[in-house]
Design brief:
Blueprint (H helix, E strand, L loop, with lengths): L24 H8 L4 H11 L3 E2 L8 H11 L5 H12 L1 H8 L4 E5 L7 H7 L5 E6 L2 H14 L4 E2 L2 E2 L18 E5 L9 H14 L4 E7 L4 H7 L6 H17 L8 E8 L4 E8 L3 E5 L2 E5 L4 E8 L3 H11 L2 E7 L5 E7 L1
Parallel strand pairs: 1-12, 2-3, 2-6, 3-4, 3-5, 6-7
Antiparallel strand pairs: 7-14, 8-9, 9-12, 10-11, 13-14
Helix pairs in contact: 3-10, 5-6, 8-11
Length: 339
Amino acid sequence: MRNPTNSSSLSFVPAKGGASSNKSPVAEAADAAPVSEFGREMQAGLARSPRSISPKFFYDVAGSQLFDRICDLPEYYPTRTELRILGECAGEIAEQIGPNAEIVEFGAGSLTKVRLLLDALETPKRYLPIDISGEHLEAAAQRLKADYPALVVQPIAADYTMPLVLPAPMPGAGRRVGFFPGSTIGNFEPEEALAFLQLAARMLRGGGLLIGVDLVKDPARLHAAYNDAQGVTGEFNLNLLRRANLELDADFDVDGFAHAAFYNAPRQRIEMHLVSRRAQSVSLNGERFGFEEGETIHTEYSHKFTVDGLRALAVRAGFKPGAVWTDPERLFSVHWLAA
């Protein structure tokens, strides 16, 4: 599920000269106040048709905690299956990576899966977890530091889909290796997935990328994974509206929207939406947006892959595909891509 998508930064340039304003100083100050990235993208997302918002905004503190709960659900097979693959194949994976590695994790979350990798590696030098939820990341990084005192842990609060300048390699460091678990690559549109992999290939040149990828399977199993009996995924989806109310002074009636997730078989992807239960209007940043009954806000895609399809995408991005590890049911796959 973890998916940030590309977003542009906004710069504020003061006006020079021109006609004087008739607005009061208070109004001018309000107009000049910077709007957060979340505010800009939510407003733009509600204005477009069809309406949509990037899933990277799921991950405030509450959203990150809800996602951790999703990973423990019986229906949500990706996390436990990927953990099983990483645990059983950790030695082979470590051989591909080599000694003294620096690990860069994209969309690090709670830093759970990387522990299996760190335990198997020979004298890893440094761990650079990147995540958009800075508060959640910092807390997880502190726990990891306590458990791995010899490891340099340097968290980076950032949108990893944007160009990043990483710290220079440490003296004596081996390969710089990216870690991208959880099939987060599936959250991108196809052209975005290619763009991210191209970016990663440049950042990791001379090293490689270890990536977890969910595979095409029975639609019924996919449907259950995103429509759990406890309703946690629904709460995760709806938390986006609660966050907007809290941070953007919006007035979403959260009970007026419903979680909807379904598998689009021709496009091999789960689609997740928030559906308006009735005709209503919402205020955001001084602008009102009307919703018809049944109208939706698209919040996430989760594309599924074949092994050959992922390898072909990696080649287009500039990687050289290597070993692939899967579970016995072929629900999930972990790929080594040399950069």
